[in-house]
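Hey, quick one: can you model this chain's 3D structure?
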Amino acid sequence: PGNAYVTDLRDKKHGRIYRVVYGEEVAPFSLENASSEKLVDALSDSNMFWRRHAQRLLIENGESDMIPSLTELVRVRRLDQIGLDPGAIHALHTLNSLGYLSTKAGRKLLGEALSHPSSGVVRTAIEVLPRDAQSRDTLLESEAEGSGNGQVLLSRLLALAEMPPSQQSAAAALEVLTEGRHSRDRWMLDAATSAAANSGGEFLSLACRVAEPTTSLENALQIVSEHVARSEDIPAIAKTMPELLDANPAIRRAVVQGWSNGWPRDARAKLPSDADDQLVEVFQRLGAGGKGQLIRLADAWGSKRLAENAKMIAKSLGEIARNE
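Sure thing. Here's the predicted structure for all 324 residues.
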């Protein structure tokens, strides 16, 4: 194939030199020695090269006096033919680099941007949100929460994975993992699992109440449970234990397997007394494989109840082993 276009008729002696010049309809454009106003105007240019160049210059020059013009660029909501507002997108990035978005006025502007008609602006607003509880609540209460745009949803999940955990964040991740329309989207499922892991115990407690878990949810449950165990998060484990009693067998199996895989081999902890009692009940509702995993965990967690019932456990497993 490499020689397909080489023929004896090819000219091997002469070459061509082209000179590229501006046409009559295109005027030369330059940002050399550009004023602050021209740099802000260039953020809406049709050419991304000039938009990014102007954004860089505004940031490097510390053009804080142009903040009012930049905020106006976000609020004007001027969409192009494909529904984008590039000026607002670059203005948000510029304001973020100038440190404006962490102020009270900047947070208010971000709240407005989360309801922008352009999904690109909404996604950018999510990406530049400060990663704190106030921004988390703003995001969960905004119109972006119900957006059907995949890129917006992906950015929202990734942001929640970096923000302080909450029950609402866990519910948002659970909703994605139980919806069939995302079952083939690897990146969406990974983002939802990351958000779920960030809310560990809250997510596991909510997920245990799902009647018919999807394969995506079962996979996420095992990953999140393993994450909780590696973190030696006993409060999260104790919070999940009562929910496991009446959970779907597939959910119970996935959670226990995740705990077993993730708990550090030499780590020791102490379960609360009520969680210790529930551990015995969970054990009785597990299959053979799950019982073996839970016995190892019970030893690491110092479970007195399972130790007291050691003979019953050995007899139960012996019966299973002898059952042909």
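One thing worth noting: The chain is about 60% helix and 0% strand.
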